[in-house]
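At this stage, I wrote out one protein, both as residues and as discrete backbone shape codes, and that material follows here.
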Amino acid sequence: MGTGGRSGLRPGKGNTEGVAAGKGNTDGAAAAPTAASASCQYRCIECNQEAKELYRDYNHGVLKITICKSCQKPVDKYIEYDPVIILINAILCKAQAYRHILFNTKINMHGKLCIFCLLCEAYLRWWQLQDSNQNTDPNDFIRYAKEWDFYRMFAIASLEQTAFFIGIFTFLWVERPMTAKKKPNFILLLKALLLSSYGKLLLIPAVIWEHDYTPLCLRLIKVFVLTSNFQAIRVTLNINRKLSFLAILSGLLMESTMVYFFQRMEWDVGSDCAIYKSQDF
């Protein structure tokens, strides 16, 4: 996440600070700078305006960060930062960090991250189901039944997440201004939602380090994931907080409808409510 845009380079701090003083020693290189990726469209992390480049690469490895013409600030200061610092800022849900990750870096792990998060959630539900139905019978049929329970939980978790996304997309499509010049980029929004769901990875430590406050941990993880989704929607579509909040509520409503449907079908979905009830019991 700390790479310098799609070019894969991350300039050092000392190089960018000494560009002005070192222009005279570049043998005329400053007169014909090379754009980092002029054909790509980036975003300023401060004002969200489009930019043609993040930095310019002069000869002799001298790099200079591009200044935004709108806000007069660096287009992307995070290209100098360490990935750990960027991750911390993303955990703090800073809009600048989200713009850097979503617009100014090339990340192709959306599908893998989604599958891994669903596996974590399916494992949590499966663990809860097995914990509430303990059986010491070593029969192979019982073991195979438990294995298929895990696959069932994975399918249910996938359907619930799909319903959550459908609820968000439906609300945003209905609320889309009819006179808008640009249509919402739902593909980019989907990638942003998948990336911002990384908080589900915390479900595994919550199960491994089981204690009396596990239900509280699960609630906090859920709130963190929803907060990250909220920030991803606001940054990706550049809309106000009210619409982002309503979009999250629409997704939760659709997800709750899916859970209610499964419960009417008498399927044990291993939902959060079921986890809390079983543990309190």
In short: The mean pLDDT is 75. The two ends are 43 Å apart (CA to CA).
